[in-house]
Hints:
Layout: H1 8-19, H2 23-36, H3 44-66, E1 81-86, H4 92-100, E2 117-123, E3 126-132, H5 141-146, E4 149-154, H6 158-167, E5 173-178, H7 186-198, E6 204-207, H8 214-226, E7 230-236, E8 247-250, H9 255-262, E9 270-276, E10 285-286, E11 297-303
Bound molecules: guanosine-5'-triphosphate and magnesium ion (MG).
The site of magnesium ion has 5 residues, from helix 4.
Amino acid sequence: MSSTNQSPFYQRAEQEYQEAKTDEERLACLEIMMKEVPKHKSSENMRKNLTNRYKKLKMSLAKQKSSGKGTQIGIKKADMQCVLTGFPNTGKSTIFQTLTGQEAKISPHEFTTFEPQLGTFNFEDAQIQIIDIPSFPNHDKSLVNSTDTLLLTIDNLDQIKKSEAYAYRTKAKIILIFNKEDLLSDTEKRKIEANLKSKFKNYDYIFFSQHPTKIQTQELKQKIFETFPIIRVYTKEPKKEPSKEPMILKKGSTFKDAAEKVRKGMSEKIKRSRIWGPSSKFGGQSIGLMHILKDKDVIEFIAK
Ligand SMILES: Nc1nc2c(ncn2[C@@H]2O[C@H](COP(=O)(O)OP(=O)(O)OP(=O)(O)O)[C@@H](O)[C@H]2O)c(=O)[nH]1
Ligand SMILES: [Mg+2]
């Protein structure tokens, strides 16, 4: 069975496999190929071949990891990360500049952004990492596939389906940013909105532009923040104000996880602990190590 008889997903994954730069990427491609290859007799050899390649790669990756080498993409992932993607000239770098206040290269020519630009913005004490990358098809595949959230920036509806060819392997949540709102008449905007609500129900979307209102910018930041499976927890010392910078923990974390994040081994030294905020029954409630925390909790503890 030749690979030309395979599904389009298989073929795409195979092509990406050939172009892949890291073993992680190759592994992800193989996973798709293994899923897509037909299960009948005539493709048995092909399946075996794929499984063998997969196993070998997994082993070599495990070795790399244990020897501490690992693979490198040059950007250290923060607790919360989002990536701006889309077709050329949709206004991604302009959005990057609006959100971060950092200057970006912006021009009416295509592919103005030719390498990833890293920035951060603040939302209610949380530091969110944002990366502006080159447009499809020159995007950074490993970033698109590995980030938490994709900000898919479009200026017409056809781009949604077309972009699936470039982002079909991502595990990220997607927010659609319909940009250049200023170019739309009220009627056009209503039509687009109706389409988004009927044909693209699965996407969370927002209209945006190069001159957004304060409320629009806040709403975009809020939407981005809500895609991350994390909570903010503030710590405080007795009789003092809570920390300005929250700790960022995974959703479902316990007080023990928080104490361990402050310092390894800390959870074994806790003498007394109290909590204020959404997960407490009342302000100043005493809690045990297994208490499950919520976003915006404030914890106070005394260690031995
Ligand atoms: N009318 C209008 N023009 C915009 C808006 N946002 C960006 N532009 C213009 O669109 C062009 C492209 O903007 P960029 O921010 O460079 O777009 P990009 O997606 O980063 O483009 P590449 O990096 O080249 O792929 C520039 O001329 C911007 O001034 C907007 O909201 N409204
Ligand atoms: Mg750009």
